[in-house]
Amino acid sequence: MKLKAILWLLIPALLVLHLSAVAQSNNEQKKPAQTAQVMPAEGLKTKMLEVKHRDPREVGQVLRGLLSGAPETGISSSDEFKTLTVRDYPENIATIEEALKRLDVPAPPPPLKRSYEVQIYLVATSRNATEKTTLPAGLEPVMTQLQETLRYKGYRYITTFVNRVEESGSVSGRGITDPMFPLPADSGKCFYEYRADLLRIADEAGKDTLRLRNFAFRVKTPVVLGKGDVSYQDSGVNTDLSLREDEKVVVGTANLGVSDEAMIVVVSVRKLK
Q1: Are 78 and 231 spatial neighbours (Cβ–Cβ below 8 Å)?
Q2: 252: β partners
Q3: Angstrom distance (rounded) from CA 39 to CA 41
Q4: Residue 223: how many CB atoms within 10 A of its CB?
Q5: How far, in whole angstroms, is CA 251 from its chain's centroid?
Q6: Are the CB atoms for 240 and 212 separated by under 8 Å?
Q7: In the prediction, which pLDDT does 29 show?
Q8: Which residues are bridge partners to 110 per DSSP?
């Protein structure tokens, strides 16, 4: 009987302890999860920095990696006023300001382009006439080789077109002249036109290798028709070619139906100092 009495006394106490443990467990489950620690925003300063030489937006993108990452920090740029506005802790602002001094320097000047003189020689050759006129210096060996290859008997120097151009530039010209080739009297004037794009490929042993793209030399020669009417015959050469500095290269030949002569175009390029 005594044992039963003791059990009846302990049961209420155990029940109270169990309910208390359950309540404590529920309270712990209801506690909010701890948030990640963030740096305080107190102590932030704002400073405006001048950008003298570079693009403020580009420089600002680079300098953003030096920010502390605290709330309310950042870098804004102004293209109009050439400034950066930095908000951060003073020590970070000092670091960003020092980095800006190293980045904000004048951009290096672009390399100077090389200048060249393009010479276009125009020579008339004939299978019948044996006349030989004086040629510009260095052109005689070219004509000797052409005579051996094409069986021309004579040649007549007409003119030289001289143009100055920078690498990656273009040369062009056009004009009206007296007939360049033997034509019937009072047949009219000749029209000529030339153009080319100059590219430098390489520099080997102090000599440049060059490329003339879209080279064209055209001549319109008058042809007298019946009843005194005049028509124009279009002749010329079109090609791409490569040559070394000071080398004389035959671009091409063109036969002229109104004359016994044929037109030969020779090109040379030399670098200007």
Answers
A1: no
A2: 265
A3: 7
A4: 17
A5: 28
A6: yes
A7: 53
A8: none
**Tokens at residue 84, please?**
């950066």
Distances in Å between the Cα of 203 and the Cα atoms of 161, 198, 242, 244 are 25, 14, 13, 9
Per-residue tokens: 179:
């007939």
Other CB atoms within 10 A of residue 52 CB: 9
Tell me the two tokens of residue 83.
């400034």
Q: What is the pTM of this model?
A: 0.62
- The answer to whether 271 touches 116, Cβ cutoff 8 Å, is yes
The answer to whether residue 18 scores a pLDDT higher than 60 is: no
What pLDDT sits at residue 3?
46
Q: What is the DSSP letter of 110?
A: P
Side chain identity, residue 256: L
What's the whole-number mean pLDDT along residues 232-236? 87
Is the Cβ–Cβ distance between 207 and 244 less than 8 Å?
Answer: yes
Q: Are 120 and 160 in contact (CB under 8 A)?
A: yes
The two structure tokens encoding residue 191 = 């029209």
